[in-house]
Specification:
five-stranded parallel beta sheet; TIM Barrel; about 40% helix; globular; about 150 residues; alpha/beta
Amino acid sequence: MQQMEQRSLGRAGVGVPVVGLGTWQRLEAAARAGRHHELVNRAVDDGVRVFDSSPMYGRAERLLADALFDCRAEAFVATKVWAHSRSEGRAQLQQAADWFGGHVDLMQIHNLAGWQDHLPMLEAAREDGRVRLIGATHYSASAFRELARVM
């Protein structure tokens, strides 16, 4: 198993490797060839610990959870909530927590869609252990000041 350079993730101070594996389209293609376990295992063997997924990526989140089953403790899983309703966001969070052994390391609000509803839900999930860290993805520069205030 390779060791990889680490960097601190934001203000949380959590160290994560500088290289991760994004799952958009990649795991779907590997699964069609019957090789998603091989892809994830090879990444882990090469020192990758950060895996980024999303419920928007088709089956990728479920495929990743399946492939990480035996080494989940070694992985840092980042996923997203991208929902315009509170109930859909809650369902996305719970599904990810269930698939990834009860918790997600980083849950990100994508495009800041519905963030006013999702942020309190994610803060509660952080308190109860289903989410370790909260972040945001794909926000516009004009949203940065508000994002910095609330995160």
